[in-house]
Specification:
heterodimer; A: 519 residues; mainly alpha; B: 254 residues; two-stranded antiparallel sheet; two-stranded antiparallel ribbon; 11 helices
Amino acid sequence: MADESAATPKSDPIKNPVGNTAAQKRKQNAVSVGKERREALFRTKRLCRAGVSTDTDIPIDDNDMMIEEEQSILESQTTSAVQELNLAISFQGKGAVQKKVNALRELRRLLSKSEFPPVETAIKSGAIPLLAQCLSFGSQDEQLLEAAWCLTNIAAGKPEETRALLPALPLLIAHIGEKSSVPVAEQCAWALGNVAGEGDELRQVLISQGALLPLAKMMLPNKGSTVRTAAWALSNLIKGPDPKAATELIKVDGVVEAILRHLRKSDDELATEIAWVVVYLSALSTVATTILVKTDLLQLLVQRLSSSNSLQLLIPVLRSLGNLIAGDVYTTNAILVPGHEITDNIIRALSKCLNSEHRVLKKEAAWVLSNIAAGSVAHKQLIYKSEAVPLLLQLLLTAPFDIKKEVAYVVGNVCVAPAEGSGRSTLIFDHLVSFVRSGCVRGFIDLVRSADIEAARLGLQFLELVLRGMPNGEGQKLVEREDGIDAMERFQFHENEDLRNMANQLVDKYFGEDYGVDE
Amino acid sequence: MMMVDNHLQTQTQLQSEFQYWFPVLRRFGPDDPFFASGNIERELLAKQIALDLTEEEKQELRNLEDEYSEVFCPIVGCGATLKSLTDFEDHYNARHTSSCSVCSRVYPTSRLLSIHVSEAHDSFFQAKAARGYPMYECLVEGCGVKLKSYKSRHQHLMDKHNFPSTYEFFKKSRPSKKERMKKIQRKQKHVAVSADEGEESSAMQVEEETLDGLVSAVSKLTTSDSSPSAISFGRRHTRGFTFVPRAVQRETKK
């Protein structure tokens, strides 16, 4: 779910009552983000605070008084609310339905207004069986909605709290069918999304209970928050590690068409959730990848990457591209052919990401470029001549370590021709000489010095290219000047034998007895 | 015009061991740590308004990933854990760069440094070694074994501690630029000079003899040839040898 209160300004006290007191308290007390808050934030579950948007006549609660933040009071109120619900369910007289709805509404408010909803208390008081009862077939929409909302927020909690929803799952799944009203279906989908976000075990349960197909169908309409919620829930459901769900999803009638349609026309928020679905489809399922690359998906993704400025959208779009390129050589060989417009566009868009201020975009864009650079010589030439090069050089020297490493892969891949059997790799002199003379060696020596084994190996491998390929001993002089010999000698006492050997070989071969004799 | 290097493989031994750079497609599973920061960013962006996150909090959360990326110092026997790569650099410079005051060689621990000093600069050590006492300590801390020669210690390291044959405690020296120039001048001089002087110069040339040659020469030293020598393999910025073992001189003069 991209953002449930995106339409509401932060200052609106009715729609965002948590905002003010909570923020003040936080600023008064701790400076850093507490552990519980952090954990809640990083979960792929989402609390429902303002309800699913609706244009039916289910009344929105406008009695949103500020909730008492005091935890113990909150807990006792919750216990009472559950007791009330219990009574309301047993009640058989006139107005029974309204009684139930009121009790549900009270519980729902307690579970959606405070910063840390009293989920544990609710469960301990026996809320779940009661809520499941409220989901029985034939119940009024309002009742279904409130019950599903409560379950959604219980499921947004800790692992054991999410697991507590097990008895209610089949009912939730039943209510996301076509016969349900739209808000009810959406709220149930939200709850299921939280359950799926908990972990693989629960995902398998949901899949075996048949959650995939109805959720997929919810993604087919043109617009609406329901489509968005369903897409988010699906991304949680198929994220694996088992690729079966992803493979099943791609085969559902209308899904591929819907994905393309949404990426082509929808607003950023919906496109974001759809893109995440594509991320998981392309990361996990070769079947899905094969199908998707034959559509104009890549075109659409490149377009979004070029035109959007929304970080939320750029991340999954970029990653989808990366997965499709890494997952199937068809992408680089048949679609991103040098000379085609799409190829120029993607390199331009990737350069835009390299130039972004966002670390994630820089790192993953470099990764994608490195895979394109692993293609044919023509691909390497294309990158070599593009606007990406000055950006890459700068990043190699100044960027944080993880970005540096990815950029190193790009540069090295551009300088080495595709593998042709065994033996030494084949250099592309022009590229190597140009990069080296632009000062990239220092960046690689930084990698050699690092404690990261993969980075050190990369650095040594590139130094080998420099020492072997630069004419007239230029490589040796450069490496020596940048303290490269020192960096390589460190490996003498390094615990990794491969690196020790590589470093020794380089020093022995290029800085041995004959070094400097022919000056 | 683009040129491509097409050298055929020549030195098979060297080439077969070095892991050359080959471009490959790199793919990551969705849960790979590589994607972690992107995943965190997704959740941060989705929940920031609801949770009213400040810019500082967001930045702190983004940096959390760095906190969890611990680094282990890879120097043999160290085992230190550092919080980040920059911390590692500091740690390395503080702990693993003990340098010898005589020849400026750098060692990663003070124990190895002191072993080096004894073996390379201490005539007492050489005297005892020449008399056949086992003086060459095993480099692995805690082992305690002592061997009679550099070579046999090397063998012990390979046999008992799985060190590779490439592990050289005394790394061959690389002559500095000044030394390289001197060597070139000397070579040029010798060409013009008679065979007689050639003998003298060959002794001088021993200064630049390979490590293996000297090591094997040293290990052939017997108690009767007891002239201790300070085997000093200077680093590139220091002076070369001042003293050469007589046994070695004798060998090369033939």
